[in-house]
Write a structure and sequence with these properties.
Radius of gyration: 21 Å
Number of helices: 2
Helix content: 55-70%
Strand content: under 5%
Shape: elongated
Protein name: CopG-like ribbon-helix-helix domain-containing protein
Order of helices and strands: HH
Structural class: mainly alpha
Number of strands: 0
């Protein structure tokens, strides 16, 4: 059966492999699914880190704060 997902071959240490197997067993999912889910989670964290850095850089400049008010949204 063909799959639409891309395959990636990686090499990990024995200890990392054992940890991944234990996590997959704990969560009752296949090892490949566990690794894929972990990669997706870390990519989201990395995206948050980058966006936070961009926001911090923007706040360093001259910032003009606008008072939050119901009048503004009308």
């Amino acid at each position: 059966m063909a799959t639409t997902k891309q395959r990636i071959n990686i090499s990990v240490s024995d200890s990392t492999h054992e940890t991944l197997k234990r996590l997959a067993k704990r969560d009752q999912e296949p090892l490949a699914t566990k690794v894929s889910n972990l990669i997706e989670q870390i990519l989201e964290l990395e995206e948050d880190r980058v966006l936070s850095a961009i926001a911090d850089e923007r706040l360093k400049g001259k910032v003009r704060w606008i008072k939050d008010s119901d009048k503004i949204w009308k």
